[in-house]
Amino acid sequence: MDRPARVALVAGEPSGDGIAAPLVAQLRERLPGVQLFGIGGPRMQGQGFESWYPMDILSVRGYVEAARSVPRILAIRRELKARLLGDPPDLFIGVDAPDFNLSLEEALRVAGIPTVHYVSPSIWAWRGERIGQVCRAADKVLALFPMEVPIYQKAGVAVEFVGHPLADEVPEHPDRGAAREQMRVPPGAPVFALLPGSRRGELEQHAGLFVETAKLLEAQMPGARFLVPLVSRAMRQQFEQAIYNGGATHVSFTVLFGHAQLAMLAADVSLVASGTATLECALLRRPMVVTYRVPRLTYRLMWPRRYLPWISLPNVLAGRFVVPEILQDDATAPNLAQALANLLRDKEVRSRQVGVFERLYRELRRDAACRAADAVMPLLRGPGQGRGAAAPVASARSLP
After folding, report:
1. Which residues contact 277 (CB under 8 A, 6 or more apart)?
2. Are residues 25 and 369 in contact, defined by beta-carbon separation less than 8 angstroms?
3. Residues 364, 369, 371, 376: what is their CA dihedral angle, to the nearest 10 degrees?
4. pLDDT band at 119; cut points 50, 70, 90
5. Contacts by residues 166-169 (CB-CB < 8 Å, ≥ 24 positions apart)
6. pTM for the whole structure
7. Distance, CA of 176 to CA of 320 (rounded, Å)
8. Does the pLDDT value for residue 57 go beyond 80?
């Protein structure tokens, strides 16, 4: 009797957890008794995934922030590599987190373990030299965006465009009225969703800024409501402390544990820290302003290395400025409050944003989990191949 398949996955942050969870569900459905393990968050664990380490240890961004966590992260990677090499899985899937996953994938692939990198590194935005490492690390890349496919095909990397799982989760016709009712928003009240980020470092940079921005908006628009979805109770407490420290207890904040989509759907306009949440807001077809701040040294090291004039995914995918990006030193409470107020009052600009977002939604809604499962199944070693024998590399195929 054949043993159950064993698949290792590593997701390093909440967005990766959300991307991987539907794939975990697909693999469990297709492979009876499959064992799924590695590093993952609550959504993956909810599908029966066994996480060997807390995912939030890997959830850091930027040189300065990562430097503080390097010893622990490197220790985890060494332990994980030794464990996987000592008892090889049939397939390894690294979900985003390229700084952690690519070198791990290289070592596993050399040992004959088939490897997949799910979520292409942003080589089109910066650090394009990483494509060489991707070539060495991955038997196949699963790309979320169509413009990534020709880049990898040119480099000789097997690649599949699978679409974005977030697009599959968003209904074709979101019910804004129901969302506002669920958020208990009074009719006619201006509503702003504030999304300061899913990492602790992001909240350190943005919490006070977002609170001060809300204070300025509330002074202009008495009765305005502010919905603040956060990914953990610890971050919720951190934001609530920022409200107290900023003397904003009189402002109508609703601080939520999760429910980001509901908050953005209920809001008239959202203020979003650059990252996956900007794409989520676009897929919901809701107007937004994007901002981001990092420690000064991180900014000086990273900013000159960018290739594109935009940092937010909606602008990158559109190839132009569709949403305002107010970054770093320009990201002040008066500037953010003015941009949000302008967008709230300008129906034509909001309509243009929504039109672009509708096209992005149609392009990225492809049943990503099913496509991803289709792409990785041929890489799973059959019972006759045995441990240490890598599956053949599947060839790249053109966009549909």
Report:
1. 195, 197, 198, 260
2. yes
3. 140
4. very high
5. 166/18, 166/19, 166/276, 166/279, 166/280, 166/283, 166/364, 167/283, 167/361, 167/364, 167/365, 167/366, 167/368, 168/22, 168/365, 168/366, 168/367, 168/368, 168/369, 169/261
6. 0.82
7. 27
8. no
**C-alpha distances in angstroms, 344 versus 105, 299, 350?**
46, 30, 8
pLDDT in tens, 65-95: 555 677 888 899 999 999 999 999 999 999 9
- In 142-156, which positions are buried (b, 16+ CB within 10 angstroms) versus exposed (e)? bbbbeebbebbbeee
Average pLDDT over residues 225-230: 97
CA-to-CA distance for 393 and 375, rounded, in angstroms? 11
DSSP state of 306: B
Q: How far apart are the first and last CA of the chain?
A: 38
Residue 374: alpha-carbon gap to chain centroid: 22
| H or E stretch at 95 | strand 91-95
Tell me the average pLDDT across 332-347.
Answer: 98
Query: Max Cα separation, the chain?
Result: 71
| CA atoms of 134 and 103, how far apart (whole Å) | 9
How do residues 349-381 score in pLDDT, each as one tens digit? Answer: 999 999 999 999 999 999 999 999 999 999 986
List residues bridging with 270 in a β-sheet: 193, 288
